[in-house]
UniProtKB/TrEMBL annotation:
The lineage of its organism: Eukaryota, Viridiplantae, Streptophyta, Embryophyta, Tracheophyta. One of its GO terms (molecular function) is cellulase activity. Residues 1-23 form the signal peptide. GO terms for biological process: cellulose catabolic process. Belongs to the glycosyl hydrolase 9 (cellulase E) family. It is an enzyme of class 3 (hydrolase). This is Endoglucanase. The keyword Acetylation does not apply. Residues 29-487 form the Glycoside hydrolase family domain. The active site is at residues 414, 465, 474. It catalyses: Endohydrolysis of (1->4)-beta-D-glucosidic linkages in cellulose, lichenin and cereal beta-D-glucans. SUPFAM superfamilies: Six-hairpin glycosidases. Its EC number is 3.2.1.4. It comes from the Eukaryota.
Amino acid sequence: MQAINALPLLSLLLLSTCLLCSAFTSKDYSDALGKSILFFEGQRSGKLPPNQRLTWRGDSGLSDGSSSQVNLTGGYYDAGDNVKFGLPVAFTTTLLAWSVVEFGSSMPGQIENAKAAVRWSADYLLKAATETPGTLYVQVGDPNMDHKCWERPEDMDTPRNVYKVSAENPGSDVAAETAAALAAASIVFKDSDHSYSARLLQTAIKVFDFADKYRGSYSDSLGSVVCPFYCSYSGYQDELLWGASWIHRASQNGSYLAYIQSNGHAMGADDDVYSFSWDDKRAGTKILLSKGFLEKNSEDFHRYKAHSDNYICSLIPGTSNFQAEYTPGGLLYKGSQSNLQYVTTTSFLLLAYAKYLKSNRGGASAAVSCGGSAVSADRLVSLARKQVDYILGDNPAKMSYMVGFGPRFPLHIHHRGSSVPSVRAHPDRIPCNVGFQYLYSGSPNPNVLVGAIVGGPDIWDGYADDRNNYQQSEPATYINAPLVGALAFFSSH
């Protein structure tokens, strides 16, 4: 449903009242940062390590891949179900890695936990990319069967079918996103584990070559097992440009710059798109590539600065290009299903771009050009802070949308492992259909999925703390990943 554009004046006032004030301290942001990373331990699949901190979780998916004689254990369940979807989890990995690359110096107390979160996913993506030559495994679990059950991952007995893309059944979107994830992760480990970093980058290059050579959308190849769950609505061109951009940043190989210059126009580089998500990478790619122009004065990336400005201006009330929707409480609003995924990605891009602007040594390019006005980097930081603070509880409902943070937060999240008694409290198996009693129960979830960000409120700032309302109450890895970087920034500013 198209959001009602009846609130611009109120939103403008709410968003421009103060550039620096906040309801939260750096200590609060640090607390939220630690919890946002801890959430990923609750999403782990596979054999859990001895230092697992969310101890209500147990081992799961230990035979994943065995039906195809490959090892696909590990990785993350992307949201509240028990399927390992390749496209959103690869995007999660890229954004987690980008958070560490950009703001790792601002999270000294959490850097090892953040890197562990990246590695848990990167290890799985390496398996998916290298188990069988010429093949990329992109999903474990039949989502249609999985969604007919409500069971914790430790008990799941639904089919763990394995799905892949290949030369005959291409998936350039999921393959190029996987390449981006591996390349971004290689930067994270470049100094601390050089051999691992090199392996990640080498694999990223091979996966990208595969994505580029055998072009096609994985939605066409895999049909009903990825649609409507994670259909690639934007196509695969945006992922190819995104993947090439990350490999260029990781390798500084000039051939990827040439690829970007030759293919950028055809791959959406000149399209002004105003959202950034697991499906559409265009806005994020432009911000990423703007770094080259802003920090190195490289004319190769000048066009991306102009398009990045257009994206940023669309978010700023009062500018000539303003077109975003905000709730009465000041929250960016893009859609009724899992709206906070757009809020966290946007907040991250605002802060990354602000950082790139400030790194520039003066000049007109040190600000965002919005028609005849210039918008400072501090204004971007202010808008990002407003969004982050809203998520943490500075909103009309006075509710934190991060589980376990603050005095009031969602208690009935749409998440199987959190809502069903844990294997620690109830060792006996809870069968598929028996679990539905917990979905429909009015009781709070017995297991607190600390740090999870839910889908969030509606256009009027309303939130139903209802397990059955998955649009608002389901957490997802790709909501949390960019918030890790944003919280790191605010914890040290």
